C-alpha cells in the first residue's frame, strides 16, 4: 500500500492544507485524483508520498489523469499557500479548470486560418535587447521600452528561440479583450497557440487545458493572469506584457501577484513602457533592466504636446469640457481625413447628483457610494454593485426640484463631440459599450480609419496601434491624483504616458492636448515629457520617506461588522494585540498604523476599518499574521497594490 499527501479542492480545516490517503497503485506527484472527503467526494492533487500514518486512512477513489501536472504547477501550489498564507484548497481551485470530473463530448479541433506572418526586421536596439536578455543570469528581466519601440517583436523572437529549445512559453496579457492585436501577431508566427480566457465556456476551457496537459510538443499559452496555471510541460519562458497593469494582482482568494508567482515558476520577462517603481527598483538592484529608448521604425514625424490649464476658462468658450485648442485640433484632423482620440478614465454621463437646496446626494442603497447618471438610458447606476435607480426629479429629503448632475464621463463627452462635430463618425469604448461594438471586435475598422473620433476610458490606452491618429486629448489628466493612496501618482503617470503613446508612434504628425487643473504638478510634467527616470527618482524618494514599497512589505488588515461601534471595538482590540506581540518579539523595524476607517467605510455589509502594517522584513509580517485569531470578520491582503 502507498500513502500520499493530497491537497483537496474543498476546505476541510483552517490550519491543515493536505490530507493523507492510501492507494494500491503507485502515483506520481502532481497527479489529479478523486478522493472522499467527509460524506462527499472532491478532486485533489497528489503533492508528495509519505509514510504509513498511525491513524486509519481512506483510499483514493480514482485517478483522473495518468499525466501529472508539471513541476512548476506543484511549485506554485505550495509557494502560493505559504507566501500569501491562503488555504491550499483555494489554490487547487485556481489551478484546476471547473468541471474537471464531467464527461465531455469529443470536440473537433478547430482549424484556424493563420494569417501570413509580417516579418518586421529587428533593428539594432532590438537585437541588442535580445542579446542582453539571453545573456542575463537574472531569473526576472525588466524590458523597459518606450511605446512603439517594438517589444512585441522581441517577445516573438524570444519565443521562437524557446520553442527551438523544445520548451513552452506562457505570454500573459492584462485582458484578452484588449490585446487582440498581440494575439494575432503570435498566431501568425506559431502553430501551437492556446488562448485561455474567462469568456470561453467551461467546456472549451476544460478542453484547452487538457490539450495543454497532454501535449507532446512545446506550446505557446496566451491569456490573463490565470493562464500561469496552464499545465504545459518543460516551461522555458514567461512573458508578462504591460507588466504595470493592476489586473495582474488577484484580489480574491487566493490573493496573489502574477509577477511574483511567475518569477517562482520560470525565467520571466516583464515588458512595460511604464514599469512599477518597485519592479524597476528590484531589477535595478540585480542589474536586470534592458532599455529600449527609440521607436522600432524610424520616422521624421513630429509630436507636439500642449498642457492646458482647466482653470483658465477663456480656453473653454466653445465647450465647458473640451478646450478650444483640442476642438481646433479635432477639426483639423477631420479636414485631413485623419483620426482623433479623446481619453477620460470615467464612464457614464455625470458622477455626482446632488440637491443644490439641502445638499442631498444620490447614493447606492447597497454600497452607499455616489450613483452615476447614464443619460442615454436615463437611469442612475452604481458602478460597484451594478444596481440601477430612476433619475430623481425632486429631492427625496426637501422635495425641491433643484437637482444638479455634476462632473462628466465618457458618455457626456460623446454627446458634446456629436454637438460640435455632427457629421463625424464617433465611437465610444468603455465598460458600457455593447459587446458587439467593443474595441477588440471592431479593431480592424478603427485601425482602417472608419471612425473619425474615438472616445474611451483606459481600455483605449492599452497596446493598440492606431496609425491614423493625429489629434489626442486627455480631458482631465489629474483626475486620479486626488485619491488618498500611495499608488495614485504612479497610476496617473502610467495612464497619461500610455495614452500619449497611442499618438506618438511616428505614423503621423500629431498634436496632443493634456487638460489639467494642476498643469505644473510633477507627475503631469514627467508624463508629458516621457521622463521616466525623473518620475522614478521623485516617487522613490517619497516612498523612502514614508517607508512604503519597495522599502517595506505591507499587510492590510480590515474588519467589518454590522455596527460602527462593534467594528471600532474589535479593531482596537486587534491593534492592541498586534502592538503587544511586536513589542514582546522586539520587532524594531515594524510600523503599525492606528485603526482608521476604510476608504469605502460604510457598505451594506456594515462598517469597515483597517490597520496597515509595514515591515522591512517579510518574516516579521508573517510572524504577526500567524499569531492572529482568524475570524470571518477579519480580511487580509499581503502586498496590496492600493490601500483604499
3D structure, described in words:
With 644 residues, this protein is an alpha/beta fold. Helix content is 28%, strand content 24%. It contains 16 helices and 31 strands. The strands form 7 sheets. The chain has a 7-stranded parallel beta sheet with strand order 9-10-8-11-14-7-15, sandwiched between helices. The longest helix has 21 residues, at 564-584. It is globular and about 85 Å long.
Question: Uncertain spans, ≥5 residues at pLDDT below 50?
Answer: none
Largest sheet: 7 strands, parallel
Query: Looking at the structure, what is the overall shape?
Result: globular
| Structural class based on helices, strands and sheet pairing | alpha/beta
Amino acid at each position: 500500500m502507498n500513502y500520499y499527501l493530497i491537497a483537496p479542492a474543498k476546505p476541510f480545516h483552517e490550519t491543515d492544507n493536505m490530507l493523507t490517503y492510501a492507494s494500491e497503485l503507485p502515483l506520481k506527484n502532481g497527479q489529479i485524483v478523486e478522493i472522499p472527503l467527509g460524506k462527499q467526494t472532491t478532486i485533489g492533487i497528489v503533492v508528495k508520498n509519505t509514510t504509513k500514518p498511525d491513524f486509519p486512512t481512506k483510499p483514493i477513489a480514482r485517478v483522473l489523469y495518468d499525466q501529472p501536472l508539471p513541476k512548476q504547477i506543484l511549485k506554485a501550489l505550495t509557494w502560493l499557500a505559504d507566501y500569501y498564507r491562503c488555504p491550499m484548497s483555494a489554490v487547487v481551485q485556481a489551478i484546476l479548470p471547473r468541471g474537471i470530473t464531467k464527461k465531455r463530448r469529443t470536440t473537433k479541433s478547430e482549424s484556424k486560418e493563420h494569417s501570413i506572418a509580417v516579418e518586421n526586421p529587428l533593428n539594432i536596439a532590438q537585437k541588442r535587447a535580445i542579446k542582453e536578455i539571453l545573456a542575463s543570469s537574472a531569473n526576472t528581466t525588466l524590458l523597459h521600452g518606450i511605446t512603439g519601440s517594438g517589444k512585441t517583436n522581441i517577445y516573438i523572437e524570444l519565443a521562437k528561440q524557446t520553442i527551438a529549445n523544445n520548451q513552452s512559453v506562457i505570454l500573459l496579457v492584462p485582458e484578452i479583450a484588449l490585446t487582440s492585436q498581440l494575439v494575432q501577431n503570435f498566431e501568425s508566427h506559431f502553430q501551437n497557440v492556446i488562448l485561455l480566457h474567462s469568456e470561453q465556456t467551461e467546456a472549451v476551457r476544460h478542453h484547452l487545458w487538457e490539450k495543454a496537459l497532454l501535449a507532446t510538443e512545446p506550446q505557446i499559452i496566451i491569456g490573463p493572469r490565470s493562464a500561469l496555471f496552464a499545465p504545459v510541460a518543460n516551461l522555458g519562458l514567461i512573458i508578462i506584457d504591460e507588466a504595470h497593469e493592476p489586473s495582474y494582482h488577484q484580489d480574491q482568494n487566493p490573493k496573489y501577484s502574477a509577477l511574483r508567482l511567475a518569477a517562482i515558476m520560470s525565467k520571466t520577462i516583464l515588458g512595460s513602457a511604464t514599469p512599477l517603481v518597485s519592479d524597476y527598483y528590484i531589477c535595478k538592484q540585480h542589474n536586470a533592466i534592458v532599455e529600449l529608448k527609440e521607436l522600432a521604425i524610424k520616422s521624421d514625424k513630429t509630436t507636439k504636446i500642449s498642457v492646458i490649464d482647466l482653470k483658465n476658462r477663456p480656453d473653454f468658450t466653445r465647450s465647458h469640457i473640451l478646450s478650444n485648442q483640442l476642438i481646433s485640433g479635432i477639426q483639423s484632423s477631420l479636414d485631413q481625413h485623419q483620426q482623433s482620440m479623446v481619453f477620460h478614465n470615467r464612464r457614464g454621463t455625470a458622477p455626482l447628483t446632488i440637491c443644490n437646496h439641502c445638499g442631498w446626494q444620490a447614493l447606492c442603497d447597497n454600497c452607499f457610494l455616489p450613483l452615476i447618471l447614464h443619460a442615454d438610458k436615463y437611469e442612475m447606476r452604481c458602478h460597484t454593485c451594478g444596481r440601477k435607480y430612476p433619475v430623481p426629479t425632486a429631492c427625496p429629503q426637501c422635495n425641491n426640484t433643484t437637482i444638479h448632475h455634476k462632473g462628466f464621463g465618457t458618455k457626456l463627452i460623446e454627446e458634446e463631440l456629436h454637438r460640435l462635430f455632427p457629421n463625424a463618425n464617433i465611437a465610444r469604448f468603455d465598460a458600457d459599450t455593447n459587446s458587439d461594438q467593443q474595441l477588440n471586435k471592431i479593431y480592424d475598422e478603427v485601425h482602417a480609419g472608419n471612425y473619425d473620433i474615438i472616445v474611451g476610458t483606459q481600455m483605449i490606452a492599452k497596446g493598440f496601434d492606431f496609425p491614423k491618429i493625429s489629434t489626442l486629448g486627455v480631458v482631465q489628466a489629474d483626475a486620479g491624483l486626488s485619491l488618498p493612496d500611495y499608488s495614485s501618482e504612479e497610476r496617473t503617470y502610467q495612464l497619461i504616458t500610455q495614452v500619449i503613446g497611442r499618438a506618438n508612434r511616428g505614423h503621423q504628425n500629431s498634436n496632443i492636448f493634456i487638460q489639467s487643473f494642476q498643469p505644473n504638478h510633477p507627475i503631469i510634467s514627467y508624463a508629458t515629457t516621457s521622463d521616466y527616470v525623473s518620475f522614478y527618482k521623485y516617487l522613490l524618494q517619497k516612498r523612502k520617506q514614508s517607508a512604503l514599497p519597495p522599502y517595506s512589505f505591507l499587510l492590510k488588515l480590515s474588519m467589518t461588522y454590522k455596527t460602527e461601534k462593534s467594528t471600532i471595538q474589535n479593531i482596537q482590540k486587534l491593534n492592541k494585540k498586534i502592538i503587544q506581540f511586536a513589542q514582546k518579539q522586539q520587532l524594531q523595524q515594524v510600523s503599525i498604523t492606528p485603526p482608521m476607517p476604510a476608504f469605502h467605510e460604510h457598505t451594506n455589509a456594515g462598517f469597515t476599518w483597517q490597520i496597515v502594517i509595514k515591515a522591512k522584513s517579510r518574516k516579521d509580517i508573517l510572524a504577526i499574521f500567524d499569531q492572529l485569531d482568524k475570524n470571518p470578520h477579519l480580511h487580509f491582503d499581503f502586498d496590496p497594490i492600493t490601500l483604499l
